[in-house]
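Protein modeling request. Please complete all fields; requests missing the sequence field cannot be processed.
Requester role: graduate student
Desired output: 3D structure, token encoding
Chains: 1
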Amino acid sequence: MASAISGGRLGDPMTDEQMAAYLRENGYPEHVIRDGRKGLIARWGKFVAEVEHGYKFGLEDYRNDLDLRGIIAMLGVDAQVAELDRRFEALLIDRDKRVWETSAADPFWDFGYPANAGHQLLEDIKNEGLAI
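Delivered output (132 residues):
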């Protein structure tokens, strides 16, 4: 049976229609839904650049941004963000700490936080007991 997060068979990428339904059901803004795959990939790229320059937002925003990567994985377009992933992964520290769960698997982006995290993200991570 197909779900909103798969194309019908285990491992099948979502169709555009399934992706739009998933995003809508999970409360994503209409502009995110309208921009589709290319928009999600562009937003992931913007997030990676923000992290490279020192992420200025808190943990809730950070987790929302990690959700983008989880959706990209569900779409089956990991290869299109491989370079962005490499850049993002290079910035992560405390990789034994899971800060979010975007999938049942253990994707690298769910573990750790940026070494150059801003004050708000660091404060939130400490308050949740994810860092010393």
